[in-house]
Amino acid sequence: VTLISPPPHHDIYSIEDLAQLVHDLHAVNEKAGVSVKLVSSIGIGTVACGVAKADADVIQISGNDGGTGASPLSSIKHAGCPWELGLAEAHSALYNNGLRDRVVIRVDGGIRTGRDVAIAAMLGAEEYGFGTIAMIAEGCVMARVCHLNTCPVGVTSQKEELRKKFPGTPEHVVNFFQFVAEEIRQLMAHLGYTKFEDLIGRADLLMESKAQIARVSKTSNVDLGQYFSGVPNTADDRSFLRATLEGGQQVMKEEMVHVNGFSSDLDRELSNHPDVKKVIAENDGETIVSFPIKNTDRSTCAMLAGDIARAHGNKGFEGKVMVEMTGSAGQSFGSFVLPGLYVRLNGEANDYVGKGMHGGEIVVVPQNDAGFVAADSSIVGNACLYGATGGDFHANGRAGERFGVRNSGAFAVAEGAGDHCCEYMTGGVVVMLGSVGRNVGAGMTGGIGYFYDQNDTFQDMVNGEIVKVQRVVTEAGELQLKMMIERHWQLTGSERADEILNDWEEEKGKFWQVYPPSEALTPVVAADAEIVDLRVSASAPDGEMCFLPVGTNMTPEQAQRCAD
User: What backbone phi and psi angles, to 5 degrees, belong to 91?
Assistant: First the structure.
């Protein structure tokens, strides 16, 4: 399946979105640092300050040089500015705003020698990335066919006959870095320093090479001092090299990872519940826990999902943890939910519900005294199921914009959505029981969408650049749609679902099916396709994929399996 563009670009539109993503990652693994990569460009200093305030642990500055052999030449040679310019601006902005001690600055983009490392250190970097040159040290010849499985020296090939040609050994790479370290040592000796960290941030040790500037006529009148004159003099203030913990203790920044504050307290309480810990430890049994929730509780269930994943991996959890929340959930509710975790929210939720969801189940329903019509009211926010790879999602109410963005495996039912529904979707099934906004299916290269159209206005909302639209014309498609709506009614008590099911023969004709070319020959789309199995849920109660036969009457056991 062709992917249109990298996933994060469709979720991060502001520094607040980035801060939430950093929060999610710190929640799912409190011991892991979070790195944010910024392209060296004008204005990078302002962005770097925002990233530091978002509690990132590392800011990586990437220059315009370097890149993988699979990249176009334009990406390798002409993307962004030189790393020296971006590094100087980011370090200066962070230092001048009192944020430099909160983050480690890493730089990469064509760094090849010890001299490059020394200059990067003097401009403020603490870590240094080697990519292309390390590959060359182990035998890469930059044939630039990494993506074709034809690498002549077997570096990026799965073909055994090519892999036998791989000339590299670990010693080659080790030897290269020993030479780099030796060059750095010689430069330090030349400058009169014995500790490498004493070079970091010392831009005052750099000066222009008059001979090099005069060597080429077009650079003879260039004054580089203007580019680096704003770099602060840190010769006497070295405090930015250490991080300060609560209580005033200073530690190496590499040893410190930012920890979420009160916004993860509910998640910690949930993860430390004795019944939950017992089920995870024994990998057996089931438990139900209930908690109130408020909108300052963010990334709820991410920490629990991380605990389960660390103990049992993505699919090894054989217990069952059911979490019931009541109230208004903050952003990223149900992030990274995985098989064996069943989450129910009585209330409403903000943006990013089910972000990165891998399995399990999320159900969102209004509280009993809500006082509004569920099918006409928003109950979850924007970008729900962003990047989900599995699981089942049911919302008895409308969703915001970009519902199912980059969904690649979740099965979801909601009662309407805003603009850009199913954007960049590559798998899974989405059912909408109400109206949706414009630009449906933009960049959608996989998966199926079903859209209920009472007013015959849906076709004007579709982005037809890739996807096609038809009525539900196959038996398999009708069965898939009906069973997902039945399950939605069973889990949420949806009045809209009940109305549709009670007059199915009439209402099924109001549904449109949206599909990309990759799904054109599947049984749910093509009437003449061979019908074998039909998937109506991302996972069955036992955690395995749920398949049901099509074209025959189901046995009572199969019917019960679907109901469960």
Answer: -60, -45
What pLDDT shows up at residue 555? Answer: 62
> Is residue 5 pLDDT above 60, yes or no?
no
Q: How many Å apart are CA 74 and CA 465, to the nearest integer?
A: 26
Helix extents (H) in 32-169: 44-53, 73-77, 83-96, 114-122, 132-137, 160-163
Please, what is the end-to-end C-alpha distance for the chain in angstroms? Answer: 32
Coil, helix or strand at residue 181 = helix
Please give the sequence-ordered ranges of beta strands (E in DSSP) within 435-543, or none if there are none.
446-452, 468-471, 511-515, 533-537
Strand duo 127-128 + 242-244: pairing = unpaired
Distance CA 327, CA 318 (A): 29
CB 144 within 8 A of CB 231: no
Handedness of CA 95, 99, 104, 105 (dihedral sign): negative
Q: Let me know: does 291 contact 267? Beta carbons within 8 Å.
A: no
Helix ranges restricted to H, 3-159 = 15-28, 44-53, 73-77, 83-96, 114-122, 132-137
CA distance 452 to 462: 13
Buried b / exposed e across 406-432, counting CB within 10 Å, b at 16+? bbbbbbbbbbbbbbbbbbbbbbbbbbb
CA-nearest of 474, 412, 419, 475 to 449 is 412
Q: In sequence order, what E strands does 358-422 have?
A: 361-365, 392-395, 408-414
* Alpha carbon distances (Å) from 94 to 83, 228, 263, 324, 458: 16, 15, 25, 42, 49
Q: Binning pLDDT at 50, 70 and 90, where does residue 29 land? A: very high
Q: pLDDT for 234-292, tens place per residue?
A: 999 999 999 887 777 788 887 788 999 999 999 999 999 999 999 999 999 999 999 99
pLDDT digits (tens, 9 = 90+) for 30-40: 999 999 999 89
Residue 361 confidence (pLDDT): 97
| Averaged pLDDT for residues 351-355 | 95
Q: Given pLDDT bands bounded at 50, 70 and 90, which one contains residue 560?
A: low
Nearest to 535 by CA among 487, 473, 492, 499: 487
Q: Is the dihedral of CA 130, 86, 35, 204 positive or negative?
A: positive
Determine what percent of the chain falls in helix, strand and coil, rounding each to the nearest 5: 35, 20, 45
Residue 438, pLDDT above cutoff 60: yes
500 close to 433: Cβ distance less than 8 angstroms: yes
Mean pLDDT of 215-227: 82
Would you state the pLDDT for residue 542?
Answer: 43
For every residue of 419-442, DSSP letters joined together read TTTTTT-EEEEEEESS---S-BTT
Strands 35-39 and 58-62: parallel
What is the dihedral angle through the alpha carbons of 44, 46, 52, 57, rounded to the nearest 10 degrees? Answer: 0
